[in-house]
């Protein structure tokens, strides 16, 4: 298997406090890695370290010549922002065919008519007019322009309802199967993580567990990560 990312002895300190302490793991091509842990566990800091946005000690070794797409945790858009979805994509110098492919990948291409139709297509909407789920999928589509080898998602379904959440994870899963891309995501949704990811990194400043979700999501690990009585939340029980 091809190594995509190797982390060796990663330590991040802020104001003399260790946010991440001596973390090591290896990520392989085609895996979907979920980083889980309580608030303040260092999950977002890990993303900042592996993308070079914060100082660290240790080694972060990416495979050469990778294209990396990144979707931030929160993407705030002012409702008055005079920018359409189409103009947003054009900021990335995307061709129409690339925009169509990306929107198709996230299930938005047919959202009201078609690009050539006079009806108001999602591309003609202002970003501020989109629902939370639509905006999140547009951001994912934007990250897909240029066919990245790796996609990084910080809470990909933050602010999205349960149905939209499943749709986004289904989308990511299909993309991975179709393109062989590697996905790294931060999530609090343990049930979704169990369903859609191949590897889980349990992080609480240091590595608490690493492996397939069905192996690492034990009562002992969840208690250690989130406190006693933590369990995997089943959406289907609450319909």
TrEMBL record:
UniProt entry tagged with the keyword GTP-binding: no
Q: Where is the ABC transporter domain?
A: 5-229
The molecule here is called ABC transporter domain-containing protein
The organism sits in which domain of life?
Bacteria
Would you identify the family this protein belongs to, as annotated? Belongs to the ABC transporter superfamily.
Q: Which UniProt keywords apply?
A: ATP-binding, Nucleotide-binding, Transport
Which PROSITE patterns does this one have?
ABC_TRANSPORTER_2 (PS50893)
Entry GO MF terms: ATP binding; ATP hydrolysis activity
